[in-house]
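Researcher: Here's a chain I'd like modeled. Treat it as a single chain, no partners, no ligands.
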Amino acid sequence: MTSPEADCTRADREAIVEAAKKALEQGEAMLTPEEAARAIGCGERWLRDGANQRGFPHHRFGKFLRFSLQDCREIQEMNRERARPSELAKARRRRSSRATSSGTRSRPVV
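Model: Modeled as a single isolated chain. Structure tokens:
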């Protein structure tokens, strides 16, 4: 019993490889660490360290590190800082809640 690959000629194999390359090229772009860092807006070293040590999504092809556009989106989301109220806003809320709980009317703080 022979495998289908055994019946292929060298020219057939080359055609298969070329078709696979074209299909991959039409798919999602794969960026080098330098390109991905520019797209994300960060340093290349930080991005490499994140992929190697902090679990950033990435692809490895042998020794080559690559990032898809989806990987870049996920890295941005992973490192997004949630908005926190400023210290001034916290102080204003504390002041207004103390004044209303004691029964006095508080003036709006400007």
